[in-house]
Recover the amino acids of this structure.
């Protein structure tokens, strides 16, 4: 049995020894956790750095392939540019639709009806006609109304002159 | 250091070592994890951005590979429908041809310059006509709006001279358009979209416009010149 010759007051107390033992364990565990954590952070860093460099290479390859198809890209961009600008032109206030109205009205002309005047403006599409008698005029109105091609037809004027016969002006909304 | 530890009591002395180690580990952890976390976050953000631009490039490449050659071949038709240069001369020539085909007499023709928009430039053409058959005038108008380059009717007034007389006078104002081509290609990383269904419909419409007739002059063969000074 070993003899302890040290004075008893120099000997650490029991609770201090136990605490020190626990602290040593804690220090060891925290050191291990610290090392593992550091290693993990470092590994993640390296992993993403490698991924980034791989991605950079991949992007360069893709850019080279896209550059090789530059002519196709140019054509596609040109096509889109023309289409967009053409649409913009079509959306401006155009009376081209009035020409279709005029075409459809002229197809519905019965015998005894003749054109007097046509006006296409931003405000209205108006067609004035001559007729010898009211029967022809009413047949014309019936054929216009029955065609179903116009959203709305309205009578602007209806007049009679012995020298000209009946004259009627219609407004159209397509 | 030794003198300090010698002066400490035995209880503290035994606790001193592990406590210092724990404090050091905590301090190092704070430094390492704080910096490490921010570095990893930067890399993560860079990686996400790289993945995104890689996906954009891949998509762009696939679109460029899959885009139908037939669609691209219509680029010429779109350039005729909306030219890059002022098409006034071409349109006037078309007007004259169409008018003569429909027995319409062009009495006066004026070209009026309008303010040039940044993107789309336009001009106005005023045409005064005289003709005998109204349906032929409608047909003339239909030819006009269905022809390339694009023209839009601004105003129209056609009047019959008198009830008995079969003679019509027409005053027509049309707008003509042209636009510059894009000067630069977008950046490689800018995504590109395929033509939408609406754009395909507009393309079909542009394609369906009647193309102007170009006259090809055939080169003449050399002729005998007995007198070279004449």
């Amino acid at each position: 049995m070993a003899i302890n010759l040290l004075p008893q007051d120099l000997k650490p107390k029991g609770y201090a020894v136990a605490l020190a033992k626990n602290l040593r364990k804690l220090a060891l565990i925290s050191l291990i956790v610290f090392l593992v954590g550091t290693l993990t952070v470092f590994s993640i860093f390296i992993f993403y750095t490698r991924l980034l460099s791989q991605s950079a290479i991949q992007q360069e390859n893709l850019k080279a392939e896209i550059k090789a198809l530059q002519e196709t890209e140019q054509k596609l961009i040109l096509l889109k540019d023309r289409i967009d600008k053409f649409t913009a032109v079509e959306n401006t206030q155009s009376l081209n639709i009035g020409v279709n109205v005029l075409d459809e009205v002229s197809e519905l002309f019965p015998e005894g009806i003749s054109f007097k005047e046509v006006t296409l403006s931003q405000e209205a599409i108006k067609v004035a006609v001559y007729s010898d008698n009211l029967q022809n005029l009413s047949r014309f109105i019936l054929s216009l109304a029955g065609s179903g091609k116009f959203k709305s037809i309205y009578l602007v004027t209806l007049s009679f002159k012995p020298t000209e016969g009946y004259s009627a002006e219609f407004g159209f909304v397509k | 250091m030794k003198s300090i530890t010698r002066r400490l009591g035995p209880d503290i002395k035994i606790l001193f070592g592990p406590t210092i180690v724990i404090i050091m580990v905590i301090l190092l952890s704070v430094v390492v994890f704080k910096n490490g976390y921010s570095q990893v976050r930067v890399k993560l953000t860079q990686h996400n951005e790289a993945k995104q631009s890689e996906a954009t490039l891949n998509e762009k490449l696939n679109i460029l590979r899959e885009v139908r050659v037939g669609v691209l071949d219509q680029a010429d038709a779109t350039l005729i429908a909306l030219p890059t240069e002022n098409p006034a001369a071409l349109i006037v020539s078309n007007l004259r041809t169409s008018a003569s085909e429909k027995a319409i007499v062009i009495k006066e023709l004026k070209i009026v310059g309008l303010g040039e928009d940044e993107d789309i430039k336009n001009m106005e053409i005023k045409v005064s006509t005289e003709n005998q058959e109204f349906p032929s005038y409608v047909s003339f108008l239909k030819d006009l709006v269905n022809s390339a380059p694009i023209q839009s009717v601004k105003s129209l007034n056609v009047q019959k001279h008198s009830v008995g007389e079969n003679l019509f006078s027409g005053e027509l104002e049309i707008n003509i358009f042209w636009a510059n081509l894009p000067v630069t290609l977008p950046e490689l990383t800018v995504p590109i979209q395929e033509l939408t269904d609406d754009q395909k419909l507009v393309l079909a419409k542009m394609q369906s416009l009647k193309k102007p007739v170009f006259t090809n002059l055939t080169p003449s063969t050399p002729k005998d010149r007995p007198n070279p000074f004449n």
About this structure: The mean pLDDT of chain A is 87. Helices of chain A lie at 14-68, 70-91, 96-107, 134-147. The CA atoms of residues 5 and 144 of chain A lie 130 Å apart. Chain A has four helices and four strands.
